[in-house]
Amino acid sequence: MACWWAGWLLLLAEAGGARLEQGMLESWAQAAPWLGNTSGSQASSLQRRLPQGIIIGVRKGGTRALLEMLALHPQVAAARSEVHFFNREENYRRGLGWYRQQMPLSRPGQLTVEKTPGYFSSPRVPARVRALAPGVRLLLIVRDPVERLVSDYTQILHNRQARCKPYPPLEQLLVRGDRGLDTRYKPIQRSLYALHLARWLAAFPPAHIHVVDGGGLIREPLAELRRVEQFLGLAPRLGPDNFYFNQTKGFYCLQAGARQRCLDESKGRPHPPIAKLLLEQLCTYFSAHNEHFFSLAGRTFSWC
Ligand code: A3P
User: Fold this and answer.
1) Angle at 257 between CA 256 and CA 259, to 5 degrees
2) Which residues in the chain belong to E strands, given as ranges?
3) Backbone angles phi, psi at 122, to 5 degrees
């Protein structure tokens, strides 16, 4: 009882503008398998449930591939569109009822998962998630921060070009005269993983956050997904039959029975060439941040 009251007070303090419904919050906690078995009417029907797993980022890290691959698991119900509940004020103000409506229908025992890469680097989000869903499991997929930055730039460039708007070359955005790298450039900021992860670790115990290797997911998806299954407490149901390498796409694609599918053409786009010197400058800049990230994540990557 004491814990319940403490949790409620925390909610009032931290949840800010979100419209909260106590019954919904309780059923959210009950629905998480690691907090106890689902029971009663809540567990007995096909319905929309608040997520027990959230892919929080990182943008251009491979979040779509991770979600779609995970959704091949029979115990997973995935929200196909990005929800942006915790990071967009207009959505957050709509409250948990709205959030739940964005979730897919799920059967009892299935785990609902959503992905919104914007959560990871948004300063207010960790405390908000913690306040509403302290038991939720978080997945963070990362890739080499320089590759991620270039991928981020490429996406913005494509979006601008699609609207017939100009966008400068990356070099121009990254280097300000002779003052070196412009570290205020958003894609650089988003690649400072340690900065953002530290905020999540201030809100959640490390055991609630699993870091996925985005490079590993490209090279050998099954190995990464086995770790994810384990982290989420799912039975190991994904296997080699769920993935096949598509030479044309240059990536693994998904297979469920006779149905085969690759991610759309916005995933796995060619990147514009970047001068070697600039790449080296970026690698040097990120190196200390990366080391810090490895120590926070408890996992090391060979980046740059
Ligand atoms: P690029 O398009 O730069 O290659 P997100 O879904 O977070 O936006 O990440 C997009 C990135 O997912 C792509 O970046 C691509 O490298 C990566 N990715 C990982 N596995 C993939 C797969 N099986 N098919 C396509 N892209 C994949």
Assistant:
1) 65
2) 47-48, 53-57, 76-78, 105-106, 111-115, 137-142, 209-213, 243-246, 251-256, 259-261
3) -95, 115
Are 222 and 240 a contacting pair, CB within 8 Å?
yes
Ligand 1 site-directed mutation target among 267, 271, 274, most atoms within 8 Å of CB: 267
pLDDT in tens, 43-68: 568 999 999 999 999 999 999 999 99
148 lines ligand 1 (CB under 6 A): no
Q: Residue 20's pLDDT is what?
A: 62
CB 221 within 8 A of CB 65: yes
Q: In what order do the strands lie in the sheet with 251-256?
A: 243-246, 251-256, 259-261
* Contact predicate 174/181, CB 8 Å: yes
Task: Provide the 3-class DSSP secondary structure of residue 254.
Answer: strand
- CA 234 to ligand 1 center in whole angstroms: 24
> 214 with 151: CB under 8 angstroms?
no
Give residue-wise pLDDT tens across range 92-135.
Answer: 999 999 999 999 999 999 999 999 999 999 999 999 999 999 99
Return the closest-CA partner of residue 109 out of 69, 66, 54, 49.
49
Its pTM stands at 0.91
Question: Position 13: which residue type?
Answer: A
